[in-house]
UniProtKB/TrEMBL annotation:
Gene Ontology MF terms in the entry: glutathione transferase activity
An annotated GO cellular component: endoplasmic reticulum membrane
Compartments (UniProt record): Endoplasmic reticulum membrane; Mitochondrion outer membrane
PANTHER family for this protein: MICROSOMAL GLUTATHIONE S-TRANSFERASE 1
Family as reported in the entry's similarity comment: Belongs to the MAPEG family.
Function: Conjugation of reduced glutathione to a wide number of exogenous and endogenous hydrophobic electrophiles.
Name of the featured protein: Microsomal glutathione S-transferase 1
Length: 159
């Protein structure tokens, strides 16, 4: 059992892993914020997806008018979906990358660009900023994930 703790302590001493843990937490918190924003927009726009969600507004036809889609709610939902499509791969590939022994400065650059790109992407989606700001921020984050995947495959090529 103490051997397992020693391995965990060694992992926590890995600065690239510490950097990964920091930036993974930042982007996960940002993604969680998107859930709260969806709830906020649903409540303020009175646009709900499920019949049970509108029960507080009455019954029958009175409640049905709140069972609808709203452009602002859908915009937040699309931003959240884009987070899921990009942050989940970052979490897996970023972890493997952090454990592959990268230079700390290179790892930090990857993680910071990804986190910054995802934050910018969210602002570009929600404000909305004119294109190509959203597209470029998406592409920057995606390119970082591909770069880390390439490094992992190059380091541990067992194909």
């Amino acid at each position: 059992r103490s051997g397992e703790m020693a391995k965990l302590t060694k992992l926590l001493d890995n600065e690239a892993f510490q950097a990964y843990a920091t930036y993974a937490t930042i982007v996960l918190l940002k993604m969680m914020l998107m859930s709260l924003l969806t709830v906020y927009f649903r409540i303020t726009r009175k646009a709900f997806a499920n019949p049970e969600d509108v029960a507080t507004f009455g019954r029958g036809e009175t409640a049905k008018k709140y069972l609808r889609t709203d452009a602002d709610v859908e915009r937040v939902r699309r931003g959240h979906l884009n987070d899921l499509e990009n942050i989940v791969p970052f979490l897996g590939i970023g972890l493997l990358y952090a454990l592959s022994g990268p230079e700390l400065s290179t790892a930090l650059l990857h993680f910071r660009i990804f986190a910054g790109a995802r934050v910018l992407h969210t602002f570009a989606y929600l404000i909305p900023l004119p294109q190509p700001s959203r597209g470029l921020s998406w592409a920057a984050g995606y390119a970082v994930t591909i770069s880390m995947a390439y490094k992992v495959l190059k380091t541990a090529l067992y194909l």
